[in-house]
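Students often ask why inverse folding is considered easier than folding. One informal answer: many sequences map to the same fold, so there is more than one right answer. In these notes we will look at a single instance of the problem. The structure comes first.
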Protein backbone atom coordinates (compact mmCIF):
# COMPACT_ATOMS: atom_id res chain seq x y z
CA UNK A 1 0.00 0.00 0.00
CA UNK A 2 1.39 3.40 -0.94
CA UNK A 3 1.53 6.37 1.43
CA UNK A 4 -1.64 7.94 0.02
CA UNK A 5 -3.66 4.76 0.49
CA UNK A 6 -2.39 4.31 4.02
CA UNK A 7 -3.44 7.85 4.95
CA UNK A 8 -6.90 7.32 3.46
CA UNK A 9 -7.34 4.09 5.41
CA UNK A 10 -6.18 5.73 8.62
CA UNK A 11 -8.51 8.69 8.06
CA UNK A 12 -11.47 6.36 7.45
CA UNK A 13 -10.73 4.42 10.65
CA UNK A 14 -10.53 7.66 12.64
CA UNK A 15 -13.79 8.92 11.15
CA UNK A 16 -15.47 5.62 12.01
CA UNK A 17 -14.22 5.84 15.59
CA UNK A 18 -15.48 9.41 15.94
CA UNK A 19 -18.86 8.42 14.51
CA UNK A 20 -19.11 5.54 16.99
CA UNK A 21 -18.32 7.86 19.89
CA UNK A 22 -20.92 10.34 18.67
CA UNK A 23 -23.59 7.64 18.42
CA UNK A 24 -22.68 6.34 21.88
CA UNK A 25 -22.95 9.85 23.28
CA UNK A 26 -26.39 10.29 21.77
CA UNK A 27 -27.62 7.07 23.38
CA UNK A 28 -26.75 7.97 26.98
CA UNK A 29 -29.46 6.84 29.43
CA UNK A 30 -32.01 9.51 30.30
CA UNK A 31 -32.15 10.98 33.80
CA UNK A 32 -34.26 8.98 36.22
CA UNK A 33 -36.79 10.62 38.59
CA UNK A 34 -35.68 11.12 42.18
CA UNK A 35 -37.05 8.16 44.19
CA UNK A 36 -36.85 10.03 47.51
CA UNK A 37 -40.10 10.28 49.47
CA UNK A 38 -40.73 12.66 52.37
CA UNK A 39 -42.84 12.00 55.46
CA UNK A 40 -44.34 13.99 58.33
CA UNK A 41 -45.57 13.17 61.78
CA UNK A 42 -49.23 14.08 62.20
CA UNK A 43 -51.68 14.89 64.98
CA UNK A 44 -55.48 14.94 65.13
CA UNK A 45 -57.05 18.31 64.40
CA UNK A 46 -58.20 20.31 67.42
CA UNK A 47 -61.95 19.74 67.49
CA UNK A 48 -63.00 22.56 69.82
CA UNK A 49 -61.49 25.35 71.97
CA UNK A 50 -60.13 24.24 75.34
CA UNK A 51 -62.29 24.84 78.39
CA UNK A 52 -59.30 24.99 80.78
CA UNK A 53 -57.01 27.95 81.32
CA UNK A 54 -53.59 26.30 81.75
CA UNK A 55 -50.74 27.82 79.76
CA UNK A 56 -47.93 25.36 79.09
CA UNK A 57 -44.45 26.23 77.89
CA UNK A 58 -42.75 23.71 75.60
CA UNK A 59 -39.21 24.56 76.61
CA UNK A 60 -37.25 21.97 74.67
CA UNK A 61 -37.48 18.77 72.65
CA UNK A 62 -34.08 17.12 72.41
CA UNK A 63 -33.24 13.94 70.50
CA UNK A 64 -30.48 11.37 70.82
CA UNK A 65 -27.55 12.10 68.50
CA UNK A 66 -28.26 9.24 66.08
CA UNK A 67 -31.78 10.58 65.49
CA UNK A 68 -30.49 13.91 64.16
CA UNK A 69 -30.86 12.86 60.55
CA UNK A 70 -33.56 13.34 57.93
CA UNK A 71 -33.48 9.63 57.01
CA UNK A 72 -36.10 7.37 58.58
CA UNK A 73 -34.39 4.74 60.70
CA UNK A 74 -35.08 1.01 60.72
CA UNK A 75 -33.37 -1.10 63.36
CA UNK A 76 -31.98 -4.35 61.95
CA UNK A 77 -30.89 -5.75 65.29
CA UNK A 78 -29.98 -4.65 68.76
CA UNK A 79 -26.75 -3.04 67.53
CA UNK A 80 -27.46 -2.24 63.85
CA UNK A 81 -29.57 0.48 62.29
CA UNK A 82 -30.40 1.28 58.67
CA UNK A 83 -30.75 4.89 57.54
CA UNK A 84 -33.24 4.87 54.68
CA UNK A 85 -31.89 7.69 52.55
CA UNK A 86 -34.77 7.50 50.06
CA UNK A 87 -37.34 7.81 52.88
CA UNK A 88 -36.75 11.09 54.64
CA UNK A 89 -38.47 13.30 57.18
CA UNK A 90 -39.87 16.48 55.68
CA UNK A 91 -38.50 18.45 58.66
CA UNK A 92 -35.95 17.91 61.40
CA UNK A 93 -37.25 15.17 63.69
CA UNK A 94 -37.02 17.27 66.87
CA UNK A 95 -39.02 20.04 65.17
CA UNK A 96 -41.62 17.53 63.96
CA UNK A 97 -42.03 15.98 67.40
CA UNK A 98 -42.33 19.44 68.97
CA UNK A 99 -44.97 20.46 66.43
CA UNK A 100 -47.09 17.33 66.92
CA UNK A 101 -46.61 17.38 70.69
CA UNK A 102 -47.90 20.97 70.76
CA UNK A 103 -50.92 20.07 68.62
CA UNK A 104 -51.75 17.10 70.84
CA UNK A 105 -51.43 19.18 74.00
CA UNK A 106 -53.72 21.83 72.55
CA UNK A 107 -56.29 19.14 71.84
CA UNK A 108 -56.65 18.62 75.60
CA UNK A 109 -59.59 20.39 77.25
CA UNK A 110 -57.33 21.37 80.17
CA UNK A 111 -54.69 23.28 78.18
CA UNK A 112 -55.61 26.64 76.71
CA UNK A 113 -52.26 27.60 75.21
CA UNK A 114 -48.88 26.04 74.46
CA UNK A 115 -46.00 28.49 74.10
CA UNK A 116 -42.73 27.45 72.49
CA UNK A 117 -39.22 28.83 72.88
CA UNK A 118 -38.12 31.50 72.45
CA UNK A 119 -40.80 32.74 74.84
CA UNK A 120 -41.94 36.35 74.60
CA UNK A 121 -40.75 38.49 77.49
CA UNK A 122 -44.32 38.99 78.70
CA UNK A 123 -45.36 35.34 78.20
CA UNK A 124 -46.87 34.03 81.42
CA UNK A 125 -46.90 30.26 81.84
CA UNK A 126 -48.21 27.91 84.49
CA UNK A 127 -45.74 25.10 83.74
CA UNK A 128 -42.87 24.28 81.40
CA UNK A 129 -42.13 20.94 79.78
CA UNK A 130 -38.84 19.46 78.58
CA UNK A 131 -38.65 16.28 76.49
CA UNK A 132 -35.73 14.00 75.64
CA UNK A 133 -36.38 11.46 72.84
CA UNK A 134 -34.17 8.39 73.16
CA UNK A 135 -35.57 6.19 70.35
CA UNK A 136 -37.84 6.90 67.37
CA UNK A 137 -37.66 4.21 64.70
CA UNK A 138 -39.12 1.04 63.27
CA UNK A 139 -37.78 -2.47 63.57
CA UNK A 140 -37.25 -4.68 60.53
CA UNK A 141 -39.64 -7.24 62.03
CA UNK A 142 -42.50 -4.72 62.19
CA UNK A 143 -42.33 -3.41 65.76
CA UNK A 144 -42.02 0.31 66.55
CA UNK A 145 -39.51 1.75 69.02
CA UNK A 146 -40.26 5.06 70.69
CA UNK A 147 -38.86 6.05 74.09
CA UNK A 148 -38.82 9.48 75.64
CA UNK A 149 -38.28 11.06 79.04
CA UNK A 150 -40.11 14.19 80.11
CA UNK A 151 -40.09 16.68 82.98
CA UNK A 152 -42.76 19.11 84.13
CA UNK A 153 -41.32 22.30 85.62
CA UNK A 154 -42.65 25.20 87.63
CA UNK A 155 -41.90 28.64 86.19
CA UNK A 156 -40.26 31.76 87.52
CA UNK A 157 -36.98 32.44 89.31
CA UNK A 158 -37.21 29.39 91.56
CA UNK A 159 -38.22 26.93 88.83
CA UNK A 160 -38.03 23.27 89.88
CA UNK A 161 -39.09 19.88 88.58
CA UNK A 162 -42.63 19.07 89.72
CA UNK A 163 -43.02 15.71 87.97
CA UNK A 164 -41.09 13.51 85.57
CA UNK A 165 -41.70 10.31 83.68
CA UNK A 166 -40.64 7.98 80.91
CA UNK A 167 -42.86 7.00 78.01
CA UNK A 168 -42.27 3.86 75.95
CA UNK A 169 -44.68 3.05 73.14
CA UNK A 170 -46.09 -0.49 73.28
CA UNK A 171 -48.15 -2.47 70.81
CA UNK A 172 -47.47 -0.23 67.82
CA UNK A 173 -46.50 -1.88 64.54
CA UNK A 174 -45.80 -1.09 60.89
CA UNK A 175 -45.64 -3.36 57.85
CA UNK A 176 -41.82 -3.33 57.64
CA UNK A 177 -41.80 -1.90 54.09
CA UNK A 178 -44.04 1.15 53.72
CA UNK A 179 -42.40 4.07 55.52
CA UNK A 180 -45.71 5.96 55.54
CA UNK A 181 -47.05 3.34 57.94
CA UNK A 182 -43.98 3.85 60.14
CA UNK A 183 -44.55 7.62 60.22
CA UNK A 184 -48.19 7.00 61.19
CA UNK A 185 -47.20 4.63 64.00
CA UNK A 186 -44.60 7.07 65.36
CA UNK A 187 -47.28 9.78 65.30
CA UNK A 188 -49.34 7.56 67.60
CA UNK A 189 -46.29 7.18 69.84
CA UNK A 190 -45.97 10.96 70.18
CA UNK A 191 -49.69 11.08 71.03
CA UNK A 192 -49.02 8.64 73.88
CA UNK A 193 -46.22 10.87 75.17
CA UNK A 194 -48.60 13.84 75.01
CA UNK A 195 -51.18 11.96 77.08
CA UNK A 196 -48.60 11.32 79.82
CA UNK A 197 -47.76 15.03 79.99
CA UNK A 198 -51.43 16.04 80.03
CA UNK A 199 -52.02 13.64 82.93
CA UNK A 200 -49.08 15.16 84.82
CA UNK A 201 -50.50 18.64 84.38
CA UNK A 202 -53.82 17.38 85.73
CA UNK A 203 -52.12 16.13 88.90
CA UNK A 204 -50.81 19.61 89.80
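Output (designed amino acids):
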Amino acid sequence: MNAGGFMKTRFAALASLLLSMLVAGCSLPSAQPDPTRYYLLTAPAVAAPATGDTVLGLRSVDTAAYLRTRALIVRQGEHEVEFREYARWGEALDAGIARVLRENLLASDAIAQVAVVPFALDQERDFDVTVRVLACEGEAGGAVRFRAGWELWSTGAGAEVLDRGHHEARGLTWDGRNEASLAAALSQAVAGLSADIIAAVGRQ
